Amino acid sequence: MSRLSNVVIREHLIPRIEGHAEFYVEIDSRNKRVLNVEFRIIEGMRLFEVAILNRRVDEVPLIVSRICGICGHAHAICSAIALENAMGVEVHDDINLLREIILALNTIESNLLHVTILTAPDMFEVQTINEISPKVKKLLIECFKIRELAGKVLGIICGDRIHPRNVVPGGFTYIPSIEKARYLIEAMYKKSHVLIELLRSYKEKYLVKLDRVSHYVSLHRDDRYTLLNGDVVIDSRIKIPSNTIRGYIVESISKNSTSKTCLLYGTNPYMVGSLARVNNNAYVLVNEIREVIKDLGLKIPSTNPFMIPLAQILEVLNLIYMLRDVCEDLKLRQHKVSYNMRKGVGIGVVEAPRGTLYHSYVCNDYGRVLSVDIVTPTVQNIADIESSIKIAVQNEISKRIDLTRIKILCEKIIRCYDPCISCSVHVIRIR
Amino acid sequence: MKSKLRIVQYSLTGCEGCAISLINVLLSKSITEYVDIVSSRILGKVDLQEADMAIIDGSVITEEDAKIIRDLRRYCRYIVALGTCACLGGINALREFVEFEDAVRVVYGGVIPGVPHTTRVEPVTSIIDVDFIIPGCPPLPSDIENFIISVILGKKFRLHEEPVCYECKVQGFECVITKGLVCLGPITRGGCKALCIAYGVPCWGCRGLAEEPRFDVLLDAVRNKGLDVNAICEKLMIFLNKMRKSMDLRCQD
């Protein structure tokens, strides 16, 4: 077979994603076959797992928040929970409730950034939101305002909307009065109808047919939508207790990337994030949201990765409704428990905006961290992104080989997963 | 009608929190009509352009980072280092208590992924001439907004000079050092309204040194509480690891 028929499509620095990444696709144009797909993380290594060695446990959550400027709150909270588990510390339910409120706000903020700025131009095949029609741009601005409200509430509860100041093992060093936050959440609720309009736009202009069945992993509870407790669930069916899930995820390094990839059972790509959460929790979505799904004729559960931004919007709606209910008469009876340092190993599992996040720590009797293992949502999605690209490009080249179209298609697929590249650069432990 | 301020937004290696914060400000109603963001990967314009100002966050960690900031220095009239990582190295440099080769060997098992790295983490300020710094992890949104507005109006932008202790005094907070906590407030640049102390955590120094850092006050206060200087050294590592050796505190490491 002649090598001359092999064509490479690559892009260095994919636009409109968080962080630095490139893709590389090789096709055999004569036989119309995709030979190789690589989604490469090219972000520099900051080596957080070295950075936190021997640090005091009460400092670690705020240090690991700096892994990411969009989901810092999720890292901090996951870290605090993992350290509590390592030291055998139990916290009051109110503390976990507040943590879940923070995760919800973080998810609202992050999801709305994605759908108003990062993927919206893809609805119109343009490069930036400035090139979008004035009518849709106005809609995006209204949706962005909801994001700003969520950010303000995060700033009130945690001191800062990017890196929280008050998250520690045992709870929170300080909690302000929730009054102003309640008022802002009500404002979010009052504006939330614009999100239904945005859903409509995405359905009409963004959706591309791509059916590929993957595995969908997220936290799940039978009684309500959850971002913090419950079991890890695979494909709505297989429930795995949080402290054993790491045995099901196998990681490996790739030489062209500063990240690792994860495979379920060591063999299967899988997806985490908004679509996995909505798929696995479709029956516990708030009733009003289930009505929206029905009214718009959206197919949930969905196996189309292009549904991810729509799932993100549905999730934001769901979380706004839940927040409004919970904050109506919220009384926090305790914001911090004291504890003794104790050696141990512990894992924390939360839903960060982009999917299930795992932190596990070993600490000693002096309250110092000896080692850490972090698996972020984006690392878990890399193999699934590559599979989706392979299938989509295979479909495309069976009809025509247009390198520009293929390049745009690859970009769009990567963007729809909302990858967070800064999170995905981290190390593995030698086994 | 004055022409718009042409801005390049570029993120080096880091968490991109400062970049998101900057974009929030640049897209806000009061500012958006006065600026033209000519290059920003997050917003969809990857190619570098000539501009009035490049606002750079993150640190130099890869070879590509080092090359890009030199290009930006040539293309742009003013360079702004945004955030502690770009100004001082920040939390990116915390891992430098271990040498790069050792860190990679211990943790990656010796397999180095194929993206060329520099062996040292460097802030933007130590590689190219920087015209303005806006420190903080992240900087206050009001810092960023005030900076952009002062540039648009042609006014001078001044960073707060007094230590964080001033912020605590003005708000009537009880000094946490008197309660036995290691707080870098006496040596850290204020302007942050002592946000961390307000939320129950002592100052970790993210805004860098004050114009006249009071090391003497810090060391006295710490000794009076029976703590030793290593407790300060440990705290300094988090955001100020690059300057720690030059502080001459005789840290044991």
Query: What gyration radius of chain A follows from the Cα positions, in whole Å?
Result: 21 Å
Q: How many helical elements of chain B?
A: 9
- Overall number of structural domains of chain A: 1
Q: Quick one: CATH class of chain A?
A: Mainly Alpha
Strand order of the largest sheet of chain A: 1-2-3
Point out poorly predicted stretches of chain B. none
Q: Going across the major beta sheet of chain B, what is the strand order?
A: 2-1-3-5-7
Q: What's the tally of helices of chain A? A: 13
At the fold tier of CATH, the topology name of chain A is Cytochrome-c3 Hydrogenase, chain B
Say what oligomer this is: heterodimer
Q: Could you estimate the helical fraction of the residues of chain B in percent?
A: 25-40%
The CATH superfamily name of chain A is Cytochrome-c3 Hydrogenase, chain B
Biggest interface goes to:
A-B, 61 and 51 residues
What characteristic shape of chain B results from the CA principal axes? globular
Q: Order of SSEs of chain A, N→C?
A: EEEHHHHHEEHHEEEEEHHHEEEHHH
Major sheet of chain B:
5 strands, parallel
